[in-house]
Design brief:
Elements lengths: L2 E2 L14 E4 L2 E6 L14 H18 L7 E8 L5 H11 L6 E6 L10 E8 L4
Parallel strand pairs: 4-5
Antiparallel strand pairs: 1-2, 2-3, 3-6, 4-6
Helix pairs in contact: 1-2
Length: 127
């Protein structure tokens, strides 16, 4: 059985655990929501990517890791034209070597106004 990590980020309204851990493996799904209120942060892709990656950092750190432990990321965007701006924020957030990443353009995401969702896997052990 896995454990749910208390990240300090407002929980989802649905039957979802935002961040879970089993041993050294951490899985987390983050969206551009205000960590205190859970409301989607409105704005362009730069604003939403910045908030989503800040939530990712908070989730990984709550589990005792850092962004350097993130190995694989799936980014979901609602507009392919947002990729360059998302990449700019990404490059300011992560250091080399960058995590492996897949970026997928989807028709829409669940919450109105949401332009990005990120799913990440981190290894928190040594080696």
């Amino acid at each position: 059985m896995f454990e749910v990590v208390d990240t300090g980020i407002a929980p989802s309204k649905g039957p979802i655990s935002g961040t879970v851990r089993k041993g050294d493996l951490l899985l987390t799904a983050q969206i551009p929501k205000d960590p205190a209120t859970g409301a989607i942060v409105q704005g362009d892709i730069t604003v939403q990517t910045t908030r989503t990656l800040a939530n990712l950092r908070q989730a990984v750190e709550a589990a005792g890791g850092s962004l350097a432990d993130v190995m694989m990321v799936q980014v979901y965007l609602t507009d392919s034209a947002d990729a360059p701006a998302m990449n700019a924020v990404w490059a300011e957030t992560f250091a080399k070597p960058y995590p492996c990443r897949a970026t997928v353009v989807v028709k829409e995401l669940l919450a109105p106004g949401m332009r990005i969702e990120i799913v990440a896997t981190a290894h928190l052990g040594r080696g």
